[in-house]
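Please fill in the sequence for the structure shown.

STRUCTURE ENCODING:
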């Protein structure tokens, strides 16, 4: 398992299967091309990079999520 997987995998019990939820996103062509090039150059899937980016974003705004009072 590479460092990207280790970084984005949520803490789950050993016997809990990881299920990924499909989600459609749209990117400006420039960003999409840069992501493709990065994935090719590093041999890391684009979806892995997107999951890492979402995890980083949620960590950055964790204070908003925990203080909003809304439950998912």
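FILLED IN BY: designer on duty
SEQUENCE:
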């Amino acid at each position: 398992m590479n460092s990207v997987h280790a970084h984005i995998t949520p803490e789950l019990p050993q016997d809990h299967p990881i299920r990924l939820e499909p989600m459609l996103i749209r990117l400006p062509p420039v960003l999409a091309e840069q992501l493709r090039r990065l994935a090719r150059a590093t041999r890391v899937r684009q979806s892995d990079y997107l999951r890492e980016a979402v995890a980083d974003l949620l960590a950055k705004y964790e204070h908003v999520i925990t203080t909003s009072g809304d439950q998912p």
